[in-house]
């Protein structure tokens, strides 16, 4: 009981000292957010007029295409990057559990140890009492038993977290684990965006193939009429050659587009986590629509909505915790260790706790004094790394605001270009019809109809490209605002 009374004041001292935590608690740095995103004022005033923030929409609600929704569902289950991220999360969770275990003592056991030592005549322990007791004043010249013992013990060691080193390690592990969660969200957001973009590219190529094949058939029909005119002596062989060249130019677009389509199809299959195979597209690019009944919110909401910004902040929290760890390493560490067990020179008394039992309690205070400046260097490096992480965090926010602004401007200007191209398409289509009628009537030559067809083909392909780019711009706006992971 006296021993326990002596230990009570020591325990109170340890509890008091253990509350001395070095380092500074994390505080989010001040960031000057603009009140709204730059540019595209007319778009926000006329189109983005809904009440719900686009970033809060889950991707199934945002995408209206059932085929695209099915593809994204498959990718989230089978994509290899998503599977790797799941393993990273598990690693982070195990490291977090390990950081919590640092607060508890370590415990080890030696169930049974047998020790028998032999010494020769001139070994310097010759004068020990036991050798004299066993062999008298005339020990043998051969090896003899000097020490014989049987030991069984249980040892424990506990480092007191005086300066908060373990608490900082736990905070760093917690932030690391949360960062892996945000990384998973970021990977999912990127995956959803990449699948949608690839899918839209395939729809664009599919539409362009339709346009090219239709234009090729029109060119063949034109060549047929020119050949008839040539046979009738109404035109020259040059007209036949140039008309045929135009037809072959239209035909040459088809294999190029088919090749590009196959490449995009392979890319999509890879995103889906499977080998190349046919992807059946039941919709057309003209069917793609995006609900505009939403709004972009304000820039400050990016911290909650963008996984990459959240991950960057967790990096800053980890860097701040490392400053605390490296500072705590400069101060003394206190370790309490102890052990209990049995120790006997004779096997018949080994299990007698009164005769063979022992108990040991040790306390060690270690103060690093000269470590070749390593501790100070590590602390100063950690401080600078924290400042770099803070700058990275601010830079990530500025970049995210810029991405949203760029996406808004892109949508606005692409919509303007699309409307112009759609109006021009009406003109070129009418031009092709008029030129063909005049050509059949003999009031237009082959060059006029070739030029009209080339102009119409170019415009049709351009309109398809603008439609696709406009759709991808809407996806980019959704991604840049932090949508796609919910």
TrEMBL record:
<dbReference type="Pfam" id="PF02321">
    <property type="entry name" value="OEP"/>
</dbReference>
<dbReference type="InterPro" id="IPR010131">
    <property type="entry name" value="MdtP/NodT-like"/>
</dbReference>
<keyword id="KW-1134">Transmembrane beta strand</keyword>
<keyword id="KW-0449">Lipoprotein</keyword>
<dbReference type="InterPro" id="IPR003423">
    <property type="entry name" value="OMP_efflux"/>
</dbReference>
<protein>
    <submittedName>
        <fullName>TolC family protein</fullName>
    </submittedName>
</protein>
<keyword id="KW-0472">Membrane</keyword>
<comment type="similarity">
    <text>Belongs to the outer membrane factor (OMF) (TC 1.B.17) family.</text>
</comment>
<keyword id="KW-0564">Palmitate</keyword>
<keyword id="KW-0812">Transmembrane</keyword>
